[in-house]
Every structure is written in C-alpha cells, then in structure tokens.
Amino acid sequence: MIDKPLIILAGGFGTRLQSILKGSPKPLADINGVPFIYFLIQNWIEKGFSDFIFSLHFEADKIIDFIEKNKKQLFKNCTVRYLVEPTPLGTGGAVSFVLNNVDIKNDFFIVNADTWVKDGYSILNSYEGNVIGILEVENTDRYGKVCIDQNNKITKFEEKNNSISKGYINIGVYKFSKAIFSDWDGQSYSLENDLFPILVKQNKIKGILVTTDFIDIGIPEDYYKFSKIKRLKNEF
Prior knowledge:
Number of strands: 13
Strand order of the largest sheet: 5-4-1-6-11-8-12
CATH topology: Spore Coat Polysaccharide Biosynthesis Protein SpsA, Chain A
Order of helices and strands: EHEEHEHHEHEEHEEEEHEEH
Number of domains: 1
CATH class: Alpha Beta
Distance between the termini: 21 Å
Mean pLDDT: 91
Low-confidence stretches: none
Number of helices: 8
Radius of gyration: 17 Å
Structural class: alpha/beta
Strand content: 25-35%
Helix content: 25-40%
Shape: globular
C-alpha cells in the first residue's frame, strides 16, 4: 500500500501520435480494443495506489467519461478526482494547479498517462526527499541522460543528442514534497526544463535506479510495440 496521492498528467495534445489517435487524447489510445489508460490504472492499483488525481486539459471530457463509466470496475475502494486546466500549463504548471486546488498534505507521486512503467513505485516510496525513477538503457539518445553521484544525487540532466551512449534515463515517475511547489506564479512551466535544474543546483533531488518494463507510447513506433506485446503475451 502506498498512502500518497498519485497525480496523473493526462492533459497533453499527443501531437506526435495524431496519425493514430485521430483527435483522441493519448491516454485513450486504442491498444487492441482497450484504452491505454485502462492498463495503467490496473497497474497503479496493483502497485498499491488508491488516491488518484487526474490532471486534464485536451479532450478532458472523454477521459472523465471513460473513467466514470468504468469506475466501479476499476477503482474499488479508491478516491478519484479530476482537475481540468483552463489553459495548457506545462507539466510543472499542471502539478502546481492541482496543488492549489486539492488538499495534499506533504509528499505525493507524479506519473505520465502516456508512459508504461510497470515497477519501481515502492522503491521510490521508501526514500526520503524528492526522488525520480531512473532506468539504465543501452541508448539514451531519445530521452537524454541523467547523471548521478555515489549518493544518488542528480548532478546533471544532459540534453537529447544524436550519439548512441549507455546511461540512465528519466522514466517519468516522481515522488516530491509539496513544499518545492509553494511559490507558483500561475504561469506555465516545465518540470523537466524549469524545476529540475533548480533542484539540481540546490542539491535537492535524487535519481533512484529501478528495474522495470518501460515504454513511452508518444511516438508511433513505441505505440505499436506496446500493442504487439499486449496482443502476443497478454501481459506487460
């Protein structure tokens, strides 16, 4: 059991996947007849979450409608809330908007509704302070690289480049303290590009290595990869 709220970032436009989505939001991407977010929710509940906060914007009504229709089946003994951004606020602004409108006492998790991360949540939950999940991969080209020291403190986020190199990547699962979001000015900002560099300078963020299945379905290649795995193995 993880007794912390889970903020799900599900408000993006899915621009790179529109050839497949045809106007639908990414969380509802069709995976062999089942919306992608259905598998995410099942996994999050299996990993111990029971307090869900959906941060929405693009086609928010469609996502809310799907969740409400499947609420009794999916969310037994769970709390489910929705926050719809009035305008796109970026990943950081979306989190700040939630914190300004929902009573969250201290620590909470953040995940992305377009990324499959099967495991690692309980590991992150066991650490104090602000932590992000990182994964070792053979090629960091698409994601950029996360550099850490011997104490797991993040020393640098390297930008994406065209060179093939092994290293750690950010898998988009975070456990943060509410305190680091206390001075929001109401403007749009990015967790990755704006907040994380500040936390690195302040020595306030750790990267915790996890072993997990990981797929970001934000591009067609990985969308089809996830669909194929689910179809062939009925697992993931």
